[in-house]
What does this fold into?
Amino acid sequence: MAVIQVERKPLTFAERTYVPQIIAGLVTTWKHLVRRKDTLQYPEQRPAIPPGYRGVPTLVRDPNGREKCVSCQLCEFVCPPKAIRITPGEIPLDAPHAHVERAPQAFDIDMLRCIYCGMCQEVCPEEAIFLQQQYSMSGYTREEFVNNKARLYELGGTLPDQHFKWDKKKSAEERGNEH
Amino acid sequence: MIDFYLHLHPLVQGTLKGLAVICVIFPIAGVCSMAERKVSAWIQGRPGPNRAIVPWAAWIPFIGPFLQKLGVFHVMADGGKMLFKEDSLPGHVNKFYFVLAPIIAMMPALTTVTAVPFGAYLDEAGRVVPIALANVDIGLIAVFAVASLGVYSVILAGWASNSKYPFLGGVRASAQLISYELSMTLSVIPLFLWVNEPGREGTMGFARVVELQSNPGFWGGAWFVFVMPISAFIFMTALFAETNRQPFDMPESEADLVGGFHTEYGAFKWGLFFVAEYSHMLIGSGVFTLLFLGGWNPLPWIPLATLVDWLGVTSPILVGLLSIVIFVTKVLALIFFFMWIRWTVPRFRYDQVMEIGWKKLLPLSLLNLVAYAIGIAVIQS
Amino acid sequence: MNVVESMPPPPKPDLITVNIDGRDVAVPKGTNAIEAARLVGVDVPFYCYHPKLSVVGNCRMCLIEIGMPAVDPATKAPIMDPATGKQRINWIPRPQIGCATNASPGLHIRTNTPQIKDCREGVMEFLLINHPLDCPICDQAGECKLQEQATGYGRGYSRFIEQKVVKPKRTQLGPRVTLDDERCILCSRCIRFCKEIARDDVLGFIDRGSYSTLTCYPGKKLTNNYSLNTVDICPVGALTSTDFRFKMRVWFLKQTNSIDTESSVGANTVVWSREGIIYRITPRRNDEVNDTWMSDSGRELYKQVRSSDRLTAIRVNGIDSSLDVAVQAAAELIRASAGAVAVVGSGRSSVEEQFLTHKLAKLLQAPAGIVSRVGEGDGILISADRNPNVRGALVTGLIQGLPQPKLERLAAGIDAGTIRTVVAINEDLVAAGLTPAQLAKVAIVYLGTHVQPTTAAARVVIPTLTVFEKSGTFVNQQFRLQKFAKAVPGPAGASDDLVALSRLLAALGGGAIPSEINALWSLMAEEVPALKTIAFGRVPATGLQLDPAPWAGLPYVEGETLHYKPAP
Ligand code: SF4
Ligand code: SF4
Ligand code: SF4
Ligand code: FES
It folds into this structure.
């Protein structure tokens, strides 16, 4: 273990009186005193939320209005504080998106547990759950902090889709095996 | 009006003066607390308290929002809270002394004010007459004597609280105040050696000190801060220590003692300590202004009389008001300086406090005294 | 001496030595390469091979390199390799399938060569070409061999940009099985199972090449009572259980070993539960009892746990009460009719409960019996005796002979007035042949799980636990002592059977009898000759064979099933 002995520089007389240092300090604090303040007056002024911000997790629909979540429960599994609770369900055969087969019956995220880690978004194979811009949650009861499926879709809205994987699948099904 | 007042019974006069003191000191303490919060905020790059507003004030255009931004209504809210919140008494304290301590804190704080002149007017003869509630000849001695009683309240609070942190705070306060009182007193002796020149009646009052800073000529008009800078420095430093202000707020240093001597206090009793601290600051600044910053003289080498001449004001009341404004401005500037220092110099360690007091300031003030004593002896003889 | 050590030792298999990845290992002759490799901890991936089904070798995932030590064809002298000083190995240049390679002396196997790595990547790539990659909506995800092997042996990315083949999805193969043909990898395990084990040959492939499709024989359905085993053995998510479909992800489920209580076969099972709710039951491999199979009907039994007719309140004379009060009330009823008490035990109770029931009957000097339940055996895993634990009642001494379907002696006793109080444990007296009029004549103390005609007539009702909510043992038709464990907590209001019985015994002056299962077993080992030297904690997961000799002559009702032959 190398210990480097650093020679302490002897203080000058002026330094030992503290006075020059205190004056320098006063100058510094004065500068701060007169500087423009960066404080945001919060409820009236809101910060600009940068892209990629991890706010409240939400469920999204694709541009055709299809609910993207297929209740694979991977987010429920990965969620470190176990904030997510999903009851999986089957899409009835006569529904427009019957070929997706699976959709959540119930989907609850307990925002008192959520730590905004974004793991759910990371793990979702369907790009159905996103931590979006919403950053402030408030309520009077614990129940108000449990976002149910309807609320999650309301918060999430529609996001652009890059793949339309299920639509492609459906058209392939309709086309059959012709080559 | 003045005549009417002067014809009142002395007891009534005294009561009125006392009420006046209370009515002035308490609001000033409140305003100072808000100033403290605002200055702290600004130095830390924040706007500070700016939310509270009462509805009727909100209706006044410009002024209402301006006052709101200044946090004026927070002062009211704070005062109201301080008055009305539950005044709890912890079960483990010595009740009598526990209640007594904040009262004792208030007594020197309010008494010393009376001895400090805060303005002056010119009488018919054109002489400057200081305005003070009690223009006693022993002025400074009275202030020193009574102000140092303030430490008893701290010690009493610390002891009566019957718990560790307040006790440590009380012990610290007693040692610190004794240490710095010495240098403080020694630092002003040269000044009074000079003031009490041979051939004149001896005085410890402030009036003569201010008078000697308002004479014509270079030396006559120079404030004592220029004539005796070392004394001023020592006095200032000791003042910080005496008023328990940062960097010397050992008795209540919240980082290690929670709240120091007032840890167990709350509500109105705590508020009394708080007011006492600000009035100490106020009186300390006043004394400093009188001794070293020319009292009610507007600028160095420009005495009040000259200013009055220029302005052509003759009414004693107007002159008095003018002098009070000048004096109060200086005092407030000093108080601001207190706050400014607070956010600039970090708190000393307790051993450093002792070392500065005994090993630095005391020898320095002794040397200073000897040097000036010789100098004054040479000049005045 | 009545535990398994006393059985004649199995004939020593002739061991031969094979070499796997450079390590010699002794295996029984004829072991296939996959199993041999497993013995030394070498994983050979496979899909179509199943230890309990015939080998077809159509998935090609299990490719390995094999070789034999070289001998001079003329002299039969070993040819030595001068470089290593050992006998040279003649490796077959082409990879071979492991599932169809049986161990022979001197066989050398390599599973870690670049060629094998390439082979596996190639096979995986072909399998995934037309696979829909449905994992997010596939119930098999998490226990899918395709996922596992793709992770372990796949190339990690796809080069296939053409259209995938479209096949039928969400087909109902039968009442309990859903088929997704796109996911099928054509391993034919399900086909072989139906043909060889269920003996109901309804599945088959149609079409050719990548259009090959699994389907039912026209006009038939996969309806047999073993159809859900195809779901278990399907390595991918092609066959899924309609009942379990989209209910819960398998990775959330806790697995608890249990026993199928449908019949005296005692198939070993795993109960899958999450947070106190059971989601499914699957078979657990036990080569002595059920191999890797179980019946569909046995998988439904978990539904009784949360059924609406569950008893959840202790009742005394129709008023909700507490266990202490109920036990006192029962004791008073019993004492009031001392000498006129009958105890009806159950072949569905565990060995421990039967032991306590027997103690109760002995204490009261009351006649005791159980109710028999006989159905038709299916020759596979459901026997004719539909009580899981009649042999347990014999072992503990609760009964001496085999039970009757109707409680005629009890009925006669009631009619004659010699029985005035009946303690019924887990048995419906009406179903056991008593008339409501007879029930009205006696005071009934009932311990059981579900609402029955008897519960309405009972003076004291103490709700107890189902087999999924408690631990214990059963003795199956082979006199095999098998353990089951508590998978989920019981409903509020239900008491553990052992607690209720031991409290009742204590209240009747039977002394303090432990209700904790391990402590109870020490007592049982002392008092029951057949269970001497056995401790509950040491009963293996696959069960412990007891000596059936003391009860050999009895006319058991069971016919032949998978691993059981009735005595001639
Ligand atoms: S991971 Fe995505 S698709 Fe799966 S359940 Fe969560 S939100 Fe739904
Ligand atoms: S952000 Fe993290 S903590 Fe919140 S729901 Fe998603 S996975 Fe759970
Ligand atoms: S359905 Fe499953 S078990 Fe049957 S052939 Fe296809 S992959 Fe194999
Ligand atoms: S396991 Fe050997 S070919 Fe399928």
